[in-house]
Amino acid sequence: MYQGPHSSSTGWRGNLPCVCGPQDGCDVHNPERVLIYYNIRLPVTTKKLNFVQKLLPSTKGVTNVPRPPKFGDYQYSQDGEAIISHLSLDATSVDPLRALHLNIPSIIAFYHLDWARQIQSPPDQGVLVTPSALRCKGICKGIVDRSRINWSVHSLWINGSFYLDQRAVLSIGPRKEDAKYRHSTEHMEEKFKICRHKKFYIRSTSFEGQHGILKATVKYAVKSPRKTLTRDREWHSIYGPKAYGAACNDCCTDMEYQFELVDDRIVVSIMAWKDLGEGKNRFDPKWIIALRGKAQEHNKLPLMNRSYSNSSDLTVRAAALAAEEQPVPQPAPQTTMKEN
Prior knowledge:
- Residues 321-340 are annotated as: Disordered.
- By secondary structure, this protein is of the alpha+beta class.
- It has a domain at 125-325.
- It is 13% helix and 31% strand.
- It has helices at residues 51-54, 91-94, 110-120, 285-292, 308-312, 315-325; strands at 7-8, 11-13, 84-85, 127-129, 136-141, 147-158, 161-172, 184-193, 199-210, 213-223, 233-236, 242-247, 253-262, 265-275.
- Strands 4, 5, 6, 7, 12, 13 and 14 form a 7-stranded antiparallel β-sheet that branches.
- The radius of gyration is 21 Å and the shape is globular.
- The N and C termini lie far apart (49 Å).
C-alpha cells in the first residue's frame, strides 16, 4: 500500500479518473465506496464557481475549492495501479476535460495520458487497450429524479494516438401518477457536453397513451457556437428508433445519439469519440483545443478546422469502432504503484 505524500522526488501521485474525493470511485475501481487514495491538490472539474460556492470550503465537484480531508493529508490506496507523474504540476497537466454529463464522475487530464504512454509505449501503428485504471463505468442520476444514466468511459491507443470513448444511456419513464399513461409533458434541461464546441440538450419528454399502449416524444437540440440560433427538434416513438451522427468542425470529436422506446421508458444513448493526440506533449493542439476550446495561433494545425467533407464522414468514430471490432492486445498487469 502506498502511504507517502502527494509528491516527492520520485514524482507526484494523481487520482484515478473516477476519484473526486476520498470515498469516490466508479463501479469498477471502488464499488464499495471505501476509503481510496485522493490527492486534494488536483482539480476535479473545470466548472466555474459562483459566489456561494467560493464561500464553501467543502463544495464537491468544483475546481480549486480546498476540501479538508477526513482522514489526514493523504489517503491509503487500494490495491491496483498507481498513477505516478513526473510532469510539472501546473494547470495544463492537471486540468481535466469536461465530463459528458455533470453527474458523471469520470474526468481525464493530460497526466493520465502521459502516465499511460510511459508504462505502455504504444506503437505508432496498431491498436492497444489502455490500462484498466483509465476505464470506468457506473450509474448516476439525471437532472430529474425519475431519470438515470448508465455511463462508461474507456480509451484506446490507435496508431499512436489516444482515443477517448465516452457513452451515456439516459432512461426516463412517466411519473407514477401517470400510470394509466394519460398525456403528460415534463420540461427538463438535461445537458450533455460533447466537447467544448457542441452540447446536446433534452428539452422535454412527453408520454401519451391509454390502456398501457404508450407513445413518447422527445424534444432536443444540438448547440454549436458556429450557429447563433439553435433549432429544437423532435423525435416521436411512433416512427421507431432513430440514430443521428454529428461531428465537431473545431476539434477531433465525433458524436452519435439514438432514441428508442423500451417498455415504458424513453432511452436516449449519447456517444462521443475524441482523438486527443499522441500524449507526448501537453501543448499538442489536439489536446489543447479539446481542453480549452481553442488553440493559440502558432499551435493551430489544419485539422483544428476540420473540413465539412472530413467531419461528415465521422472519421474519429469510424476509427474507434473499427479498432474495437478487431482483437487487440491487452495491457500487461502493472506492478507499479452527422447532424449539424
